[in-house]
Amino acid sequence: MTLPGDGEKTAQLPRAPAGDMSGSQRRSTSKTHRVSPGFRCVRPGSSRTRRSMGALQSAPGQSESPGIWRTGLDVISFEQIAVLHKRFKQLSHNEEFLRRDDFSAIPDLACNPIRAQIIEAFFDRRNFSGSAEGTVEEIGFEEFLVVLSHFKPPRHSMTEEQRESVRKDKLRFLFNMHDTDNDGTITLQEYRHVVEELLSRSGALGKETAKSIADAAMLEVASISVGHMEPDEFYEGITFEHFLKLLSGFDIEHKMSIRFQNMDATTLCK
Amino acid sequence: MLRRGRRKTWLLGTFLCLVLVSGVEAGAKSEHSHGGHQQQNASEITGIPIVKFKWHHVEMPYTVALWVLVAGVCKLVIEANHHVTTVIPESALLICFGFILGGIVWGADKVQTFSLTPTVFFFYLLPQIILDAGYFMPNKLFFSNLGGILIHAVIGTCWNAATVGLSLWGCHMGGAMGDIDIGLLQYLLFGSLLAAVDPVAVIAVFEEVHVNEVLFIMVFGESLLNDGVTVVLFNVFDAFVSLGGGAIDAAEIVKGIVSFFVVAFGGALVGVIFGILLSLLTRCTKNIQIIEPGFVFVLGYLSYLTAEMLSLSAILSITFCGVCCQKYINANMDEKSVTTVRYVMKVFANGSETMIFVFLGISAIDKTIWVWNTGFILLTLLFVFVYRFIGVFALTWIQNKFRLVPLDFTDRIIMSYGGLRGAVAYGLAVLLDPNKIKERPLMIGTTLIVVYFTVILQGITMKPLVTWLKVKRAALSEIMLIEKVQNKVFDHMLVAIEDISGQKGHNYMRDKWKNFEGKWLSWILMKPSARKKHDYVFNVFHKLNLKDALDYVAEGECKGSLEFVRNETAYIDFKKKFGDDFSDISMPEIGIDMGDTTIANPYARRDTVPSVSLEMHEQTMNGLRESEDINTHHLLQQHLYKGRKQHRHRYSRSHFDVNQDEDEVQEIFQRTMRNRLESFKSAKMGVAPPKTITKHPKKDTQQKMPNGKSTDKTRSYHSGDEDFEFSEGDSASGYTGSFPRVTYTAGASHLQSNPVRSLFQLVLRTGLHARPGPHGPGADPALAGRGGAGQRHRRPVAESPGRTALDPSNLRRLAPLRISTRSSDSFTLAGVDPAASSRDRDDLPPPPSPPPTYKPN
Q: Which residues of B, range 173-192, sit inside 8 Å of A by Cβ?
């Protein structure tokens, strides 16, 4: 494991105080945010960043507070944050915020069929730690980190409960990615949209084929989650519960994880 | 049940012994009489012998064939006792069977005539097993774990060889083994041949345990790849032994290390080259489809031999040949060829595996190889076992620092415990030069004991251990489309996240490789047509659709709801008219025809369609005067003529005569329509169809029984009014319920013709294992759509009283069409409101109907 398990070298994600972002209600529901008062978050890039990171490092014992799991904030090691911060700066051209354009400009991302969905996920408030909805126009380093933290691999020493919540968190992220209008269900249209993007851009499949595959998959979902259906019954769409059930056989906590490197690989990227 | 099983076993056992003994005795006899025989031949040259017994003439191939048969029968006997194989793995049982057979041979000959020789093993038995492993290798899993596999295969094997050799030498120095003449180098040589985990044994044991896929690929991949290391180590130490201890200097050692890389990577390279050749070759085998599966085996074997010739690692070569070409040849070759390759591959691999284990057992019954040395043997066992554990634990500990999903403690134990040694070690041991190594028999014997210990004891205890440690098992789940789609989403998502976060993890690498592969390799190695439809998700979709269609047909036939497509009544009618003798003549023909057409259809015997139709038609002519009917008749006659002409059964060496004629489909459809018309008329007008049908219920039963029709079906058939036999079959199945309401016109018949026909095509295709066909992949869903439209028509039939409709959940992929709002409406209404139903029916769109309407509104 790349993660040091103890609190000494780990840093909790910096969080902005409620008033930090004017006009944003995103902070209002930071239910899990009961950290020590000395824990001030800082806009990245300012001269305070360094200092606060130092402070984070010296704040032991905080990383294990249970709420962290609920927010999906895993503990990212200090080195990893530093690497990611560098990357953030690089993407934003040394600005404090990232915009959609910055993402679109990543050359490697250009041929990714679901690029739009991924980028959107970074600007989706549901994927931040609060329970707010809607999208934002620009994100700071904190949000960037929070979204990326959905992809943290689970730690080996986790209990079943923690594992379950990590799982749920990852699935929620995935669900949100599909559920674009945030009504709690993935309707056929929404699903079809993703599948079409996924298939018709990557392969030689036509839109029609992609559509019928999406339909068929949706039916599969219907038959799994509802069971027997009357002919005139109509399947509304995938709810989150169904989604959980559907992917229950999935090793999601591992499949939806990447290793964040400690090394600075950013310099290799254009 | 148990007793019967046992008796069967005994019977088989006796048979086996008989075969064996007779074979052996014949062999012995022929050897004795060999000299005399020739003399006889010389002396009796004057007359022409009518019959000659020429055993020596066929001896060699005959013995081989007999042994293959015996090995096969062994496997059969073992698998017949299921309660035994659940406890003891098959490989262990086969070895034990080998002991018995070896005993028999020994008893007959007083010398072990048959044993596993390295030539036979390495040239004729091993290649196909490895090719099979490579060809069926789960590539993604393999390459994503390649790092770990290589660490174990290279470092782990070297570690095993060195430690076992050195420790044995140490014990020898300590005086634990008494007086044997083995030097340090020879110990190292011995260690190196014992170091490698054996792919054959590993597959045999792990296949039955179903551990999770990562664990399996770690052990299995290691066992495949460590061959390169073993061969090099073996060759190097063999050379060192020949050179003698004094002649070894640093240069030689460096050469040894260099040769390792050359042998391993060279072997892999040869394999890749042959894989590419094979892919290119299958690109242009369109016209010789019947022999294209052969290329796979021949080129695979050639890659093995080429590597062997260049003294590179042959196993690595054939593994990589299989791994590289699997994707392209599967896409390039015809679907039937792919199926053939898969089956033949399995036949070969399974057969070889069986033979190998049997012969491993037989080889043990040989006095000449047994030199007992308790210290040597026990210490070898101990070291092999212990150092495997140490090596695996140390290496996984290092690896876990870099793995996303670490291997946990139980995984490591199973990995260590799964270090089975097998026939490769034995083959290498037999290769030892008796002139240079004095204690060769001891080494062979010890190797055999190690093999038995690992395969039998560890094999037996593997399953309980896996259960006891609660090792994560492989999840047995049916393939789901949504899962595949989600997997693809994951792939792209992870790549995107790595891109965004600026990491270059293995997702990134995989994506880059995939792009490169898609852009260049596929372009070079794949047929253009195959390239287009090569999409994993689509393939899964296609497969599931086929499965659904098959289920659909099967289920429909169980419930008799396909009756209107394949009408039994026509057959009966036919019989009534022409009597039994004619039917006897025509029946085989029908059987053959349909058997050809629907290869995978177990119900083929029920298809009595082609030869029936003509008579049917003749009869209907008498009774029906409406113009549209005459129209239909003309159509019918036309197609019938063609249809029958196509039905000649031919023999051809290069083609399977599969009837893909459109006309026949047309014909069947027309006949169907005719039937519907019949039943419709009879129900509407209350008139029995013009066909005169006599009451012969008993005769019917008799006739129908051999046709695969169940008895109670027949009974229900006759339960009603017997005067009305013909139409009863229809009305009982619900025709009266729905069809009278259809305002039937000739035009309507043509309107309805296509959906039904396309349904039939769908059914037919399913039977043929056909790929998307002339329409290309893009059109296939459309086809499914039309099939669905056909089902819409069929609905009332399926929903007839007393028969349950097909459950939407049963046929998920085809179902969009069925639970579309529209069709469900029409269906529900059909049961209630005749007017609405008929209106709806008339409204039905002509095919090609719009694509699946599953509108969420």
A: none
Query: Chain A contacts of B489, Cβ < 8 Å?
Result: 114, 174, 194, 198
- Which residues does A161 contact at the CB level (< 8 Å), separation at least 6? none
- Over 90: is that where the pLDDT of B275 sits? yes
Beta bridge partners of A124: A135
Residue A60: predicted pLDDT: 38
Which of A112, A123, A215 is the mutation pick for testing B, counting most B CBs within 10 A? A215
Residues of A whose CB is below 8 A from B782: 208
- Structure-model confidence comparison of residues B527 and B689, the more confident one: B527
Q: Which residues contact B165 (CB under 8 A, 6 or more apart)?
A: B184, B187, B188, B189, B190, B191, B192
Q: Percent of chain A, pLDDT > 70? A: 58
Indicate the average pLDDT of chain B.
Answer: 69
Q: Which residue of chain B comes nearest to A108, CA vs CA?
A: B499
Tokens describing residue B441 = 């028999």
Chain centre to alpha carbon of residue A30 = 17
Residues in A closer than 8 angstroms to B500, CB to CB, are 87, 91, 103, 106, 109, 118, 122, 148
pTM as predicted? 0.66
Instruction: Map tokens 């439809």 to a residue.
Output: B533
Phi, psi angle pair for B121, to nearest 5°: -65, -50
Cβ–Cβ below 8 Å for B851 and A202: no
Each residue's pLDDT tens digit, B804-838: 344 444 444 444 443 333 333 333 333 444 444 34
pLDDT by residue (tens digit) across A99-131? 888 877 777 777 777 777 888 888 877 777 666
List C-alpha distances in Å: B136 to B129, B152, B254. 11, 21, 37
B407-439 in b/e form (b: 16+ CB < 10 A) is beebbbbbbbbbbbbbbbbbbbbbbbeeeebeb
Which chain A residues contact residue B541 at CB under 8 A? 212-213, 216
Highest mean pLDDT among A68-72, A129-133, A201-205: A129-133
Average pLDDT, integer, range B401-429: 85
Residue with structure tokens 């109509």? A234
Extract long-range pairs of B804-811: CB within 8 Å, 24+ residues apart: B804/B559, B806/B552, B806/B555, B806/B556, B806/B561, B807/A228, B808/A219, B808/A223, B808/A228, B808/A229, B808/A231, B809/A223, B809/A227, B809/A228, B809/A229, B810/B551, B810/B552, B810/B555, B811/B548, B811/B551, B811/B552
Q: A221 at the B interface (CB within 8 A)?
A: yes
Name the 3-class secondary structure at B180. coil
- Higher pLDDT pick, B646 / B166: B166
Q: Rounded to the nearest 10 degrees, what angle do helices B126-135 and B292-309 cross at?
A: 120
Identify the band that residue B318 occupies on the pLDDT scale cut at 50, 70 and 90.
very high
CA distance B577 to A129: 81
Higher pLDDT pick, B129 / A81? B129
Inform me whether the C-beta atom of residue A203 falls under 8 Å from chain B C-beta atoms: yes
Q: Cα–Cα distance between B597 and B592 in angstroms, integer?
A: 9
CA end-to-end distance (rounded Å), chain A: 28
Q: Å from B532 to nearest chain A CA?
A: 6
pLDDT digits (tens, 9 = 90+) for B210-246: 888 888 888 889 988 887 788 778 888 888 888 776 6
Q: Examine the pLDDT at B274 and tell me if it is beyond 80.
A: yes
Tell whether B489 lies on the interface with A, counting CB pairs under 8 A: yes
**CB within 8 Å: A87 and B502:** yes
A113 token code pair = 């069929």
Quote the CA–CA distance of B782 and B851 in Å, as a whole number: 6
Cβ within 8 Å of B, A 17-36: none
- What 8-state DSSP symbol labels residue A37? T
What is the ipTM for the molecules in this complex?
0.71
Question: Which tokens in the block code for residue B852?
Answer: 């699946």
